Amino acid sequence: MKLYLEQTVRTQLRPCCEVSLGYKTELTDVVPLDGVTFNQVDCISLQAGGDPICLKKQNDTSGALVQVFPGPAVIVPEQNKLKDYNKKSDFPKTHQLRQGDTISLTLHEIQRKSAQQQDLDVDDEEVLEIKPVYHTLICREGRVWHDTGIVCYDSTSSAIPVAQFIATRPLTAECSQFSFEIMNPGVGCYIAIGLVHRRYRMNRQPGWDPSSIAFHADDGGVFIGSGWPLRRTEPCHVGDVMTCVMDWEQQKVSFFKNDKMLYTSNKLKRVPTGGFFPCVGLHSKARAVRLLDLDPWLPPKEGGDMSLEAPMLTSHLTKSNIPQYMYVKVSQCNTVPPSTHVKIPALPPAFDTYKYGNLWISPGLKLSLHRQKQNLEGWLMLHNPSKDLVGFVVKSTPACIDLVRHLDPGASCTVLINKPGTDITSMSKVEIAWFALDSGKVYTEKEINDIYSVLTAESYHTHMLKVKITETQVSDVTRLKRKAEGDPDIQDQYELQVRRNGSLVDSYYLAAGRYTCVLPREGQAGLQNILLRYPRFPTFDLPNIFQRGMRLIAQPTENTYAECVIADVTHDGLGLTLEFSPKDQDENTLLCVEADSPAIQLEELPLEVIEEMSTVIKGRRRARREINLMGPRQSKRNLMTEPRQSKRNLMTEPRQSKRNLMTEPRQNKRNLMTEPRQNKRNLMTEPRQNKRNLMTFQHQNFFLLMRHPPQKGSHS
How many domains does one find in the chain? Predict the structure, then answer.
């Protein structure tokens, strides 16, 4: 029986090392991080309120960053927006960075379930059916309860944009008015009723932009295409009914409060293309109204004129309350059936409903609470469809909410839950109990609570709501999905765990890719106040499942054991790809097995296999130690010797060339200098010689004359 343990398996184990150079720790602000090898990093804060700890996807040129701490994990599109985001946000104490804190980041690959198991989970989850009643051309920052017609302000943005609820049909001679009742005015009662064109701008109350007219409840002002009221009338309060009427014969618009006319406009000069569409505007939180008319909110008529490019609503209810829009152009053609001439807009975001007996509860399954600075806010709505007086009690676990009220026959109640986040964060469920009361009698909260305390379990009905807490979206910052909010999306690959001083802060889902832990900061590069390092002793708190990069002992063939590395795991976690090194082969071999295969689910190992494995591992460690101790020194010596020799050759060659270059000009200069001297010497010597010859000739003649004077009568 043999055991093959080759030392060249192409994989890496997770290291236990710090970011250091030799004996001195390196102060760095960039550390690689992935889901297998380098899947954990520690961030040590050197001072309070240090740099934000972020993740950046490698080879990503968009500049987007994932801020992990402080605060909840969010995706920031640009680095220069980090400062504004942190300045505007008010993080809870558990998400703030203090001096001496150690923030640990850990990545784990998500092990997805099989398709069959996911189908079973979906079938087991209870889903309440929503029957559409109210349709909208545009629905922004709002949500409707179809069973009662209640429209609530429901936005996850901290900027408090304007909620718009615009009907699909314009007002006509057959349907010339619409109205609603103020259910919850909130602070300031910033509620408006009016008419707008079909492409009305977002984040604008009706009446502020051209081709619109509206009546505002907060100051009773009438706005006609301007941000300043043309006239002020009576303000409206909770319970008041606001109505808008279009007189097509006179081309005038009138506004009413509780059937009392407050304003009638002059004759309109023009009507926008496509007509005037009813619009409800809500411009702050805790606002809710109840629609009293159904005709304007019906779907468009079949065969209607939708040939113009009208915005069609495409709402993703599971991800955001803010709908996305696309423009669709429907061509008019006689060969197309009439039903295809109309593109019905998608339904607006809606609340589901739990109906039982004499009480309707919305939302029916989960109570969503949005974090707004230090508080958590969410809507809870109740409706009494019966003819009896109903009392109800709302309590939470732990005891953060204690509400006692009664509902008249056919009445509705909207409750905005607004509690400090420190008191309500641990809340997991809300229980609603209701029972019938005697009609014709007025009850106080104390009396209703006393009646509830003496009732038996058979005398009242109860319903339980799960609590779901979501973070507020700040401008264009996108929040990462928390693990507590449900299953990961298709694009998610990692589970990001954030720990503070060893305690788990939260877990998030992260998209696929290779990441780097960075510390983006402003000012001088040397002023670093967070130390990044790999942990000396990683936690190894891996789940009890197979993951890529793990090592295990397998039995590829009969009577043969091998140390294998998990090269890949299927999405359902039931299939493995093993990589091992067969004996006397240069390349590794891949083996695909099932998770429950006998090749890896070994019941026992022979004793000789364990002994041989121990011997091989000891030899491997000794060889690695020798390589680490001797190999690098020799390589370093060779690397150092070669550059020295090359440098010496490079230095010697220029010297020789320089010497040759210097010698040649000297020789040329010497020749050039010698030739003129020689010429000059020749020129100087020749006159001297001529002069000497002449003087010698004259001297000789003189002596001849002295010796032999000429005779008289002779000619010289």
Answer: 3
